[in-house]
Design goal:
Structural class: alpha+beta
Number of domains: 3
Shape: flat
Largest sheet: 3 strands, antiparallel
Number of helices: 20
Number of strands: 11
Radius of gyration: 33 Å
Distance between the termini: 62 Å
Oligomer: single chain
């Protein structure tokens, strides 16, 4: 086993890239030139940066968890397993979030990424592994599809590593960058940026040609140069802003440029961002394209984001972690990794509580658990550490002989629910159909309070709260379905 320290990496510092030292602006890049690196394209193209950073942040925000498969129906989470420990504490200078974010930034730019395994003895005396990112642009893979070694070249120095010492993430054919696919459309964006910059540098005035009558004596070379220099000194750039042009006798000015509308700057820019989002498979509303965004379809696209867009990437990472890191752990029996996507799809606390109660069919938290959620101290009462029995069921009628008959209660509740629906319909009828679901959701707490207050004299406070929440949730679901249709 090779044992290293993190200090050994300090000598191989990455050199400054050409774009870091040249001082050139992003608009000066000729992206049709294939010598330009992917790092320069990422640095200078906002549409690329928006997509790559969105992709990286949302992957890094979901924590990987280790589980042991006990049986087909039983799992045990392992919070202190070596694999999650290495990922959560990769090295003294990096957090788990930053490690995964940098990994996905490399993946989004290069479609390949590399981690170095730094082997050391942990504080408990056991063998441990640290993880350090290596720059993809400085890495060379030897051996092709079945790598025999990895070479890191930095500052003219080379350092070679065995495959067992590198965690390697590679796409098709060892990684074909999405930016290579986007190169032509990014070159179009760069050209548009060059034109806009020149347009504003010339005080956003229309380009044109000054002509003189044919019967006028031609300028000599010196006269033409003097006239041109005088014109540009007076009217070009910021110095010419707001000035009135004074032409000599017989001269005329003819515009020769296209307007921004004719050049379709806005439509072209939107198209280029749409193409970038499509290449990274990101729903358009999440990169700022909101023309067709509504409350309901954004909710659905949020699910689509973690299921169809980011889901395959989570699966790729899970399999690579198990293939290249789990094999280094002493405990490998029936161990697997999963990303906690449920946390991102759980919805609001109210939606989650309603869904949980509907699926269980009874209260599912104790009073002290509820107090803990609001940072209140627990009450030392055994009854408050026990989940309450199901409300409104046959057992309640048996336990409380004086309780009202369920049938009579339902009959008394019906007109209250009908009156509440009439109030809601009157309020929503004033809004366009496409805005009703959003408006109802914004006032959901108010609707719950009002309906609960009307139901409390009939069903009691607890049951009134439950009925109000369930009824208004059903109304919201109906409005969302109608809007989607």
């Amino acid at each position: 086993m090779i044992v290293r320290t993190f200090d050994g990496l300090q000598a191989m510092t990455p050199p400054a890239s050409s774009w870091q030292t040249s001082g050139s602006s992003g608009a000066s890049l000729d992206l049709y030139d294939y010598r330009h690196t992917y790092a320069e394209m990422f640095r200078t193209q906002p549409n690329v940066r928006i997509c790559v950073e969105f992709f990286a942040r949302n992957i890094a925000d979901v924590a990987p968890q280790a589980f042991r498969r006990v049986s087909d129906t039983d799992r045990v989470r392992l919070a202190d397993h070596d694999l999650t420990t290495w990922l959560n504490h990769p090295n003294p200078a990096t957090t788990r979030y930053r490690l995964i974010e940098d990994l996905m930034m490399d993946w989004g730019i290069y479609q390949r990424a590399y981690w170095l395994k730094v082997r050391y003895i942990g504080t408990d005396g056991q063998d441990a592994i640290g993880l350090v990112r290596l720059p993809p642009e400085e890495m060379t893979v030897k051996g092709g599809l079945l790598p025999t070694s990895f070479c890191w070249t930095s500052n003219g120095r080379e350092k070679e590593f065995a495959p067992s010492e590198i965690v390697h993430f590679a796409g098709y054919k060892l990684g074909i960058s999405p930016l290579e696919t986007l190169r032509r459309i990014l070159a179009e964006e760069a050209a548009a940026g060059d034109h806009r910059e020149g347009f504003w540098r010339n005080s956003a005035r229309i380009e044109g040609v000054v002509t003189r009558p044919a019967d006028k004596k031609r300028y000599t070379s010196d006269q033409a140069r003097e006239w041109r220099e005088g014109w540009q000194a007076a009217y070009a750039g910021g110095a010419g802003s707001g000035k009135t042009v004074l032409l000599q006798e017989g001269e005329t000015f003819t515009a020769s440029s296209f307007s921004a509308k004719e050049s379709e700057y806005t439509a072209g820019g939107k198209l280029r961002r749409e193409v970038c989002a499509a290449v990274y498979q990101i729903p358009q509303p999440f990169v700022g394209i909101l023309e067709h965004a509504t409350f309901s379809n954004i909710r659905e696209q949020h699910k689509n984001l973690y299921q169809d867009c980011l889901g395959p990437t989570f699966e790729m990472l899970r399999q690579e972690f198990q293939r290249q890191l789990l094999v280094e752990c002493e405990d490998q029996a029936d161990i697997y990794i999963e990303f906690n996507i449920d946390k991102k799809l759980a919805g609001t606390p109210g939606e989650r509580a309603t869904s949980m109660q509907v699926s269980i069919g009874r209260p599912w938290r104790t009073v002290n658990e509820g107090r803990a959620l609001d940072n209140l101290p627990r009450i030392d009462d055994p009854e408050l550490d026990t989940v309450a029995p199901q409300q409104g069921g046959p057992s309640d009628a048996t336990a409380h002989p004086g309780a009202p008959d369920p049938g009579e209660t339902a009959t008394a509740i019906a007109p209250v629910l009908h009156a509440a629906r009439l109030r809601q319909q009157a309020r929503l009828a004033k809004l366009p159909a496409s805005e009703r679901a959003s408006a109802f959701f914004a006032d959901l707490d108010r609707w719950n309070r009002e309906l609960a207050a009307d139901l409390t004299p009939i069903a009691g406070a607890e049951e009134a709260d439950r009925l109000a929440t369930a009824t208004n949730q059903a109304t919201l679901t109906h409005l969302l379905a109608a809007e989607a249709a």
